[in-house]
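TA notes, week 10

Several of you asked for a full example with nothing omitted. So below is the full record: structure tokens for the whole chain, then the designed sequence directly under it. When grading your own attempts, check the secondary structure regions first.
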């Protein structure tokens, strides 16, 4: 049985259905809790983030649904907040007083192209390759190191509850023969990041967005044992943009977690994070 989901995108940002349609799906899937987490407004024009002007309506609509569905599901107000290399804390500061129930910290952008164009690490393989050539001197390891450097920086500078898709750089970096998640240098980066996460007591989301398509989670399932060893709390989220993918891959990933020795996941009840056992 799926437990809860705290990472999804409705049409306040780049999701493909209304907030209410997502809530109705969450009720139909019998989730005990559901969190809305649109992309927080960013300090430049974008097609994927919520507009700053829409924030009051986002909160108003959430409050309407929270009341309307109160007897059916617990709803929580969140945002997926970007940490940028250049603007640093701009986004975190902008949403400081919004009254969120929780915050997901994520990295989608690291450096810009020489002409100033922004580059999203999660775009096409072709654009990723172009970025490798133009920004990082044809060295994919430089991109990966830079991504992890910023992830560490985000953990030290910003305060949030959950780290989103922590190795999202992997699929695009894997198109290069010079990169493999089996590499020792890469494993050292991951272990260092997980150690910082442990110190900061942040929840790691196990993001299932690419599980049905590519058979991988973020962080990759090869780290589940290490996460268990470090006793880092985890929650399973789908990061879906369509309601029917709300719990995609959840049952399979619960099994993988259990196989790695992880016996419980984090959810939220009565406004508090708590662990629930995987049955
Ligand atoms: Zn994201
Ligand atoms: Zn997301």
């Amino acid at each position: 049985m799926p437990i809860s989901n705290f990472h999804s995108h409705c049409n306040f940002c780049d999701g493909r259905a209304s907030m209410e349609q997502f809530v109705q799906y969450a009720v139909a899937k019998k989730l005990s809790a559901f969190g809305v987490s649109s992309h927080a407004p960013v300090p430049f024009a974008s097609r994927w983030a919520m507009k700053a002007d829409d924030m009051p309506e986002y909160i108003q609509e959430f409050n309407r649904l929270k009341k309307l569905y109160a007897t059916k599901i617990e709803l929580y107000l969140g945002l997926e907040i970007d940490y940028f290399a250049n603007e640093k804390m701009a986004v975190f500061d902008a949403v400081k007083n919004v009254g969120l129930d929780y915050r997901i910290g994520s990295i989608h952008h690291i450096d810009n192209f020489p002409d100033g164009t922004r580059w999203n690490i999660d775009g096409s393989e072709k654009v990723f390759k172009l970025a490798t050539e133009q920004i990082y001197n044809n060295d994919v390891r430089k991109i990966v190191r830079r991504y992890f450097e910023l992830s560490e920086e985000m953990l030290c500078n910003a305060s949030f509850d959950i780290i989103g898709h922590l190795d999202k750089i992997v699929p695009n970096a894997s198109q290069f023969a010079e990169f493999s998640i089996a590499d020792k240098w890469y494993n050292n980066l991951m272990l260092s990041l997980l150690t910082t996460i442990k110190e900061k007591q942040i929840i790691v989301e196990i993001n299932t967005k690419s599980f049905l398509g590519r058979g991988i989670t973020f962080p990759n399932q090869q780290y589940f044992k290490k996460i268990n060893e470090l006793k880092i709390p985890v929650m399973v989220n789908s990061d879906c943009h369509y309601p029917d993918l709300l719990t995609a891959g959840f049952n399979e990933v619960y099994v993988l977690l259990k196989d790695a020795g992880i016996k419980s996941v984090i959810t939220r009840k009565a406004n508090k994070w708590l662990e629930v056992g995987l049955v």
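The chain has one domain: 4-277. Use that as a sanity check on your answer.
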